[in-house]
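Recap slide: LLM class flavin-dependent oxidoreductase, sequence and predicted structure.
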Amino acid sequence: MDNNTPDSRRQMVLGLLLSPASSHIAGWRHPDAISNAGWDFPDVLRIARSAEDAKLDFVFLADELCAPEGDAETLSRDPVIYRFEPLTLLAALSVSTDRIGLVATQTTTYNEPYHIARKFASLDHLSHGRTGWNLVTSYVEAEARNFSRSEHLRNADRYERAEEFLRVAAGLWDSWDDDAFVLDKDSGRYFDPDKMHILNHHGQHFSVRGPLNVLRPPQGRPVQVQAGSSEAGKNLAARYAEVAFTAQNNLESALAFTRDLKDRTEKAGRPRDSIRVIAGVQAIIGDTVEDAQAKYRQMQELIHPEVGLARLSQLLGFDVTTLPLDGPLPDIIPETESYKSRQQLIVETARRENLTLRELYRRVVGAYGHRVVIGTPESVADELAAWFEAGAVDGYILSPTYLPAGFDEFRNRVLPLLRERGLFRTEYTGSTFRDHLALARPARGEFQAEEQATAAV
């Protein structure tokens, strides 16, 4: 049965963006918000445990390897100037939570495969099988200048490197059979030498001998997450991803994206249900629709124009900071080598809705281009259910305007309604992140076998 049809749906996948400032740029200004620089580990842990108590599938740590671009005056208003390094934070969360999945962003552009494979294997052991790797290709141009480059590699080159990077990491995770370490004290045999596998990879971008000096991860390999929606990004996701994050603002485009991605997945030789499509959503909840709309207007008014225009310029790859706030987006926006899919989404939204730059930056940096759902708990639940039941998404990553109260409101008022409809779990039924997503644990060598089958197709 096609797992993209309504009658084959099971339950939503739900995750939480674990950052008070990565979604709504002015969320930190809300009186009840915790700001990034005011965040201490007990605050982070309390929110992660709240998500775990709610039986969410995962929490997600976004990342960029640079400060936002802009002059000191503009940057002084931008809360994303600071954030925890995600793998360090994930390590702390891995031993402080019990069941929830832990997804962290790591770039293939400014890392090496052995580092990433070793860190995620260690974290998967520390968490007893709850990690996911959100693979990105460093879309922010400023990152290049922190790593001895004046500019990024081209988009296509970054994805070519990313694919080889992932193949190497997967090969390293398969360095050992699951039962390789016999620990025979009597004979003095620590591991079975027949169950060690040397990678000996020699490719265009990497030469890596191996083996990895960490046991095979409890999940076989971390859940593979991918967020690119450009052509190169979708092709990479179709071949390798198990979870795909996307930004979609209307049902028609969401249906088209999911259908296209699952078609590509099938064409790559994988089952359609081997990938979960997760859309970002920002829910604004009120006792009435009017109350929710007032909350939304309050948040949008907190976005400072300097920050809004600077962030919009970054996402467009085009400077709009000197243009009239109440004028339209220029007719011609040069294609960027950084945020290709996000640039396309922003431009299409601006054209379709005839938005001024002021309206556009509020729309974009308020939810980072993701869908905003405004209403009562019942109407929010209705809208989330509608996309899910139509097969447009397999679930959502929640990005509240601020934390912790923004998530608490969703947890206490919307989640019970989704449960009443049978759309979300009441208890965990497994212990690993793969269990939550109903993904099988891959056998050693399975990734390489899939890759060979894909190449044959």
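The chain has 16 helices and eleven strands.
The longest strand covers residues 276-285.
(End of recap.)
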